[in-house]
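Handout, page 2. Input:
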Amino acid sequence: MNQIFSIKDKVAIITGAGGVLGGKLATKFVEAGAIVVALGRDQESLDIKVEELLAMGGDAIAIKADVLDVDGLEKAKEIIIEIYGRIDILLNIAGGNIPSATLTPDQSFFDMDLEGWKSVTDLNINGSVYPSYVFGKVMADQGTGSIVNISSMAAYSAITRVAGYSAAKSAITNFTQW
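Output:
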């Protein structure tokens, strides 16, 4: 098989690795030979994912950290650098919609829960910006590295009843292009 590039032995941080999409990508990265740092808020789901990755013969660790907590991300960075000495890849996958930010069919824009709006936009925008800021600095100092931000088709065509999620994913697409 022809390979355009290889991620073998690259240190890849995957935010949201305990979830469905992040977990699946963590599996694929281990299959491709990457070293996976599974990052997320739920230690139990991270531990389960890392056990699976290790059982596959992969190299992986779990670090509990919230993508909205810069101090926690800084601590995670220190652990990663102490263990591996570098960061090669950041996959910003953590995110998603939340129930309080979803309008029901009988609600209008003016019925929206503004705290729900704030929470979903914060998670989906800053949940990629903050890890990029913390881990991207390491890559910039190294002179090499890649950041991949996961957006959504909602960035291009808003999804009904989830205005905050759609707006936030548009913001991540714009941030990535920037």
